[in-house]
Amino acid sequence: MSVPAPTTTEPRAPEQTFGTAGIAPMDRPSAMTRFFMGIVAWAESLNLKYAKLGNPPVYDNATFPWAAEIEKDYPAIRAELEKVLLRQSELPTFQDISTDVKTISTDSRWKTFFLLGFGVKSEQNIKACPNTWAAVQKIPGLKTAMFSIFEPGKHLPAHRGPYNGVLRLHVGLIVPEPNDQLAIRVDRQVCHWQEGKALIFDDAYEHEAWNHTDKTRVVLFVDFVKPLKFPARVVNWALMNLAIFTPFIREGLDNHKEWEKKFYAEAEALRNRPKA
User: Fold this and answer.
1) Res 24: pLDDT
2) pLDDT of residue 3
3) Where is the Aspartyl/asparaginy/proline hydroxylase domain (predicted)?
4) Whole-number Å distance between alpha carbons of 164 and 225
5) Residue 60 and residue 223: Cα distance in Å, rounded?
6) Which one of 86, 155, 202, 259 is most buried, by most CB atoms within 10 A?
7) Residue 43: enclosing H or E segment and its boundaries?
8) Measured at the alpha carbon of residue 254, what is the angle toward residues 249 and 257, in degrees to the nearest 5?
9) Nearest CA-CA partner of 113 in 100, 102, 122, 103
10) For residues 239 and 43, is the Cβ–Cβ distance under 8 A?
């Protein structure tokens, strides 16, 4: 069943609410994390005030000239993705890597293949996808890059990203039909992915995504630093560089490292198995 676009009787300006009704907050009780999140809340208000390009939920691709360059790389990226999907069943779910995602996803139908997470590279995955890695290097302020894999029937409920100092890029890689069964809503705008086409949005707005087709949907998923004026630019830079020391990020990086070690050890064992 398709999800209809939201309707309204009165126009209103897009609003970042710094929370989403009905979604449990991330439970990080440590004093260090509470202190860090207090700073984040202050920084988010600066980011809204000093945004170079305003704060729309969805951006015109022409705002970022490099988006067209990424679209040109679609055939090479798609070819590398096809090889990754040969082991789709072995890929981790998002919550396997970042356990906080369990607040919005607990099934096994959202899988990932990370190249870069919060500035830390997955060398083995990059080696497997050199053309994809070369493509995302064109993005100023690159912070996260991965394949985001929505298997049939996946519906990610309304939520918002943890911090508005980044923007998100999706490039449609595998987008099954029918089109009206597959979409992402950002604030009140429903967007449909297209293969080889970029979609740039602010995940600090409430958003949800669904795949109600009977086939897998895959996008190239990238977070990059939001263009900001001084002083927000300096504060944002500092937070981005401090984030890696928080338990939330460290846990995710450790989980990915463990998965990566097992995944490539199994691949090596298969390559070295004696032929009958």
Assistant:
1) 54
2) 44
3) 71-227
4) 9
5) 16
6) 202
7) helix 31-49
8) 125
9) 122
10) yes
Residue recorded with tokens 């604030």: 187
How far is the C-alpha of 80 from the C-alpha of 87, rounded, in Å?
12
Nearest to 263 by CA among 150, 152, 113, 116: 113
Q: Kindly give the pairing relationship between strand 155-159 and strand 207-211.
A: antiparallel
Residue 147 near residue 83 (C-beta atoms within 8 A)? no
Q: What's the pLDDT tens digit per position in 3-24?
A: 444 444 455 677 777 655 555 5
Joined together, the tokens standing for residue 2 give: 């398709």
- 255 three-class SS: helix
What is the end-to-end Cα distance of the chain in Å, rounded? 48
Per-residue confidence (pLDDT) for residue 243, from 0 to 100: 74
Q: What is the dihedral of CA 123, 141, 171, 3, to 10 degrees?
A: 110
- Helix or strand or coil: residue 234? helix
Given this model, what pLDDT does residue 248 score? Answer: 66
pTM of the model: 0.86
Which residue positions in the chain have pLDDT lower than 50?
1-9
What is the predicted pLDDT for the residue at 80? 98
Contacts of 143 (CB under 8 A, 6+ apart): 116, 118, 119, 166, 223, 224, 225, 240
